[in-house]
Amino acid sequence: MINIVKIGGNVIDDPALLDTFLREFAAMEGAKVLVHGGGKEASRLSRGMGIEPVMIGGRRVTDRPTLDIVTMVYAGLINKRIVAMLQSMGCNAVGLSGADGNVIPARRRSPEPVDYGYVGDIDPAEVDAEWIEALVDSGRVPVFCALCHDRAGSILNCNADSIAAAVAQALSRKQTTRLTYCFEKPGVLADIDDDSSVIPLVTPEIFGRLKADGTVGSGMLPKLENALLSASHGVGEVRICRAEDLGGNGGTFIRLD
Fold first, then answer.
1. Are the CB atoms for 120 and 108 separated by under 8 Å?
2. Are 4 and 180 in contact (CB under 8 A)?
3. Peptide bond into 113 cis (omega under 30)
4. For residue 33, what are the CA distances in angstroms to 6, 108, 166?
5. Taking the mean position of all CA atoms in its chain, how far away is CA 51?
6. CATH number of 2-254: 3.90.230.10, 2.60.210.10, 3.40.50.12160, 3.40.1160.10?
7. Predicted structure pTM score
8. Which of 10, 28, 120, 165 could form a disulfide with 106 if both were Cys (CB 3.0 to 4.6 A apart)?
């Protein structure tokens, strides 16, 4: 069993919450991989430089100046901060992007129907699962930021939820995998303002209804789309939960039936 855990920007923005989550992650037994976002920090820095972030469907439009910013923030500031914190907790973390070791190549997304700029899409079949397994087997814990590369010299901004899903699917070809999306809410909510309204189970049929009636939108859409795709491609368990509940059983489970 290998655990793939993705942590979002709102948790990264909260020092106390990030510390709590990383302690839970460090204490998690067995093989594990961490994938992190950082969009909130990137947006703050972008605005400070006079560049207003543009989001479409929960995904960032990445022009050249924005690509420079997310590369600095994701692969530098946030990735190394997380790695240093994990090291202090006895977790031998290694900070990575998808370009390192050619482990997660991507293709620049077509400009039709929406031009997202330097944004990449990942094929799980191209993820080097053996490379990740070799790192894990050596006692290291990979920590991936949300950047990949196009094999032609360019960094591409890739959705962190998609990276976590692709890694989980790739690793599931050889072993049992568990994919957990952690963020600041206790799961998928029927009412975004009511933390007690957790939807315990999402299937493709339920997702269709939630999307159609507007219950889920923005950043939750990529999470659920990637969760359902992962479940349909061999990932043993997919869950969306609060960061503090990583070691528990609460949240929303994603299943095919």
1. yes
2. yes
3. yes
4. 9, 25, 12
5. 24
6. 3.40.1160.10
7. 0.94
8. 120
- Token pair 């923030």 is at which residue? 73
Report the alpha-carbon distance of residue 122 to residue 148 in Å, rounded.
9
Tell me the β-bridge partners of 108. Answer: 120
Cα–Cα distance measured from residue 41 to residue 46, given in angstroms and rounded to the nearest whole number:
8
User: What is the chain's pLDDT, residue by residue, as a tens digit (257 residues)?
Assistant: 999 999 987 899 899 999 999 999 999 999 999 999 888 889 999 999 999 999 887 678 999 999 999 999 999 999 999 999 999 999 999 999 999 999 999 999 999 999 999 999 999 999 999 999 999 999 999 999 999 999 999 999 998 999 999 999 999 998 999 999 998 899 999 998 999 999 999 999 999 999 999 898 777 887 899 899 999 999 999 999 999 999 888 999 999 98
d(CA 99, CA 119): 14
Q: What is the DSSP string of 232-244?
A: TTT-SEEEEEEGG
All structural domains of the chain with their residue ranges: 2-254
- Where is 56: in which H helix or E strand? strand 55-56
CA distance 127 to 170: 6
Angle of helix 204-212 relative to helix 220-231, nearest 10 degrees, comes to: 160
What backbone torsions phi and psi does residue 64 show, to the nearest 5 degrees? -60, -50
Residues 6+ apart with CB under 8 A from 48: none
Tell me the C-alpha distance between 220 and 204, whole Å. Answer: 15
**d(C-alpha 54, C-alpha 237), whole Å:** 33
